[in-house]
Each structure stands twice: as structure tokens, then as C-alpha cells.
């Protein structure tokens, strides 16, 4: 019974790797030692996921999300943060205009001043701010043609209720964004701001009581060696649903960090920018020694979210298989081609032999299960609102897309009966996905899939460190 184990154990999953190998100290081992091998008494193992993803699914998904249907995502990036006032200085709307503008720095331009140490520091700060602003900006340009097409696409959509907070699509602030023009990558957005976001998610939205310290919050002085232990004891004591929730969030967080380390701004000249893998950055986030043993757990949670989203994608096949379903973009032959590709991906997902089984979720008393489901939904909605507080626009774009994608995956997993009920001719009664959800679902999964694929590269890079 693979799946039952998987909710409980996916993260303690590959723990057998912690059985120390001789070279447990080297760089590769410190990130990946626990991320290998079998899932207790079941056939699930990380290597199978790696093979399945990297060689089979990943290339097809990449092709799919580059198609016109999937590259344009409608999103409202201008919603105000409902929880706190924006105080960050870089990355936000006014970055470099307000706190970073030179006229607020007295004497900044006066000759001589430039050479003092303080000036150098300010200079550097200004430069960092400018750079971050530039890197985090969202390119909203769309071709005339694309804009016209979007208008037509809308007529092919209808709506239904949702698991997570959807942006009001009719709001004048909601705009189409070309995802290919805005790849998720390093933006310079970091420090206290990002910690605030993730902190409020972990501290206030993951069912965690204040008394249980989350390990590794850099802004809370460490409360001793036992922080991690207390936390993980608490986590193990949780019901499986809440634990799964935590692991999904942690997996999403890990995935985002893998991207930022894989698409790091390595070099910038006036002519071009070079993005690539930064091993130091990766180690900072995932090396057990540098993260109080947290890193490998995060990587395991990445596999956890992979399995959940993969499961959702395999479950939703009947919805997309209906002959009435179109990936409408107006180019009939292209649309048919893309639907074929989509179904191909879905069939692959369906044939994955080691699926997570969502039946272990909400399997208890019906009334309690419904309450729990409502609870999770509430927490999840809140997290999607927190994404409006992300200061850096590009991060906000990808944060919103990936939470919506995950929300859509959960919606699918909890709508199994309605999906099974779909017939080829049924006008999606009972279950429906809007275009925005479909785009988010597949792009979000493509991100997780990319992360899993990137891990292979990081494994190789780390190996090379050891034998120079
Ligand atoms: C944000 O700032 C405004 C005006 O400065 C204030 O009225 C409001 O209460 C603040 N909101 C929060 C959530 O702190
Ligand atoms: C939603 O998130 C905010 C910010 O973290 C938090 O203060 C609030 O308690 C959360 N609300 C719910 C219902 O979880
Ligand atoms: C890699 O990231 C680290 C921070 O983790 C940074 O100090 C270093 O300069 C980066 N390396 C390159 C080549 O950009
Ligand atoms: C439709 O897509 C096909 C590629 O599948 C392309 O060859 C053709 O030019 C497109 N037609 C239009 C009208 O854009
Ligand atoms: C499935 O379809 C049947 C017959 O059309 C209907 O009676 C039933 O309520 C549907 N079940 C769900 C969960 O929608």
C-alpha cells in the first residue's frame, strides 16, 4: 500500500539514506543524503520519480507550456496586500524612487562625498535597489495580435466555484502576462521581506501553535538545539491532512528556491546577462550543515508536492478527454495538435505506477472530514491572499500562479466523484476548470517538474566539487 505510507512517510520517506555513508560529509551527501531510495515498504522511490520526470514528462511539459494557450496568464498584480502595509524598500512599486532616490540621500551628489566609505555603501545600496527593481519588473507587453486573440478566448470560457482565491478576472487591473517573457529566476528580492512572507505562511497559516518554534527563522534568535526536534515532533503528531498541507507549502518553497539557485544572475555586463546555476546559493538553502538539517527535508517535500500535483493531473484526464473540450486559441490545427500533446502528458501521468493515494486524506468521520477540508481550504485561500503582499512583482506573479496551480490540484483531488461522472457530452456539470486555472495548473506543475529536473544538475555540480 504505497500511498498510505506516502502521506505519512514521504518526507520521512527516504530517511534510510541518513544511514551514514562513508562520505556523508561531502557536499553532495549533505544536500541529498536523505533524498534517495525507497519509501519504506513500498515501491515508491526518488530514483523512479527522477527517471519518469526527467526523461519522460519534463520535455513534453516544457513544450506544452510554451504553446500559446499556456503562455498567457491572466492575473491581477495590483491587489493591495490585505495584511500589512508595504514597508519594503526594494522591489516594490516605488523601489528606488522613494527610499532609494538620491535626493533623499543628502549630499549624495556632492563631489568628494562619493569617495567616503559611507557614500560607497549608499552607492552600493542604490545600485542593488536599481538592479532589483529592474530584475523584478514584469514585462507586460503583448502583441496586438495576442490582445485581439485574448478577447476571443474569453468567449470560450465559463465559470464555476473555486478552491482558492481567484483574481477577479473582470477587474480592470487583471491583465494577461506572457509567462515566456517573464521567466521565474533570481531577482535580488530577498532578506527580511521574503522572510516576512514565508514566515507568516509558516507561522500563521500552517496550523502551527506559537509555542512550537519553527526552526530556522533567522529573525528569531535560536532557542537552542531542540527547536527542530520540537517542531518535527509536533509535525508528526498532526493529523495527516495538516501535515500534508505543511509539506506542500514547504515543497513549493523548496521548488522556488531551486529555481532561484538554478537561474541565478551570475554575470551582468552592459551587453547581456548570464543566468545559471549557483552552487553556493543552492547549498545555502539545502545543505544539511548550513540549514540545521532542514535542507534535505525541504528537498523531500519537493518530491511530495510533485506526487500530489502529478496525481491531480492524472485524475483530471476525463475532463480534458471530452471531445467538447478545446484548448482554444483560434488556430484550429494548432489547437488540435496541442490537445494531443496535453492528452499525451495526461496519459503519461496516468500511467505512472507509484501514485500517491489521496484517499488517505479525509478518510475519517464524514462530519470531521468536511470540517477539516473547509479548514484547509480557508488556510489555502489565505495563503493565496498573502501572495499579494510579495513586494517583487515577478515573484508575486510566480507566487500567485503556483499557489493557484496547487489550489487547482487540490480542487481536482477533492472532486473525484464529479470528475468520474463527466461524460463526453456533458457540459462539465459539477466540475469545471476555468482557463486561468488550467494555465496555472500546468505551469505550476511544470515548475515543480523543472525543479526535480534541476536537482539532477545540482547533483552533478556538487559531485564535481569533491574531486577537483
Ligand atoms: C497602513 O497605513 C495606513 C496609513 O498610514 C493606516 O491607516 C493603516 O491602519 C495601516 N494598515 C495596517 C494594516 O497597518
Ligand atoms: C491569514 O494570514 C494572515 C497573515 O499571515 C494572518 O494574520 C491571519 O490570521 C490569517 N487568517 C486565517 C483565517 O488564517
Ligand atoms: C552565488 O551566490 C552567492 C550567495 O549565495 C553569492 O555570494 C555569489 O556571488 C554567487 N556567485 C556568482 C558567481 O554569482
Ligand atoms: C496555425 O498553426 C500552424 C502550426 O500548427 C501554422 O503552420 C499555421 O501557420 C497557423 N495558422 C495561422 C492562421 O496562424
Ligand atoms: C453523478 O451522476 C448521477 C446521474 O447523472 C447523479 O445522480 C449523481 O448525483 C452524480 N454524482 C455527483 C457526485 O455529481
TrEMBL record:
Disulfide bonds join 90-95, 392-395. One of its GO terms (cellular component) is endoplasmic reticulum membrane. One of its GO terms (biological process) is protein folding in endoplasmic reticulum. Its cofactor is FAD. It comes from the Eukaryota. Residues 1-20 form the signal peptide. The active site is at residues 392, 395. Keywords: Disulfide bond, Electron transport, Endoplasmic reticulum, FAD, Flavoprotein, Glycoprotein, Membrane, Oxidoreductase, Redox-active center, Signal, Transport. PANTHER family: ERO1-LIKE PROTEIN ALPHA, ERO1-RELATED. Belongs to the EROs family. This is ERO1-like protein alpha. The lineage of its organism: Eukaryota, Metazoa, Chordata, Craniata, Vertebrata.
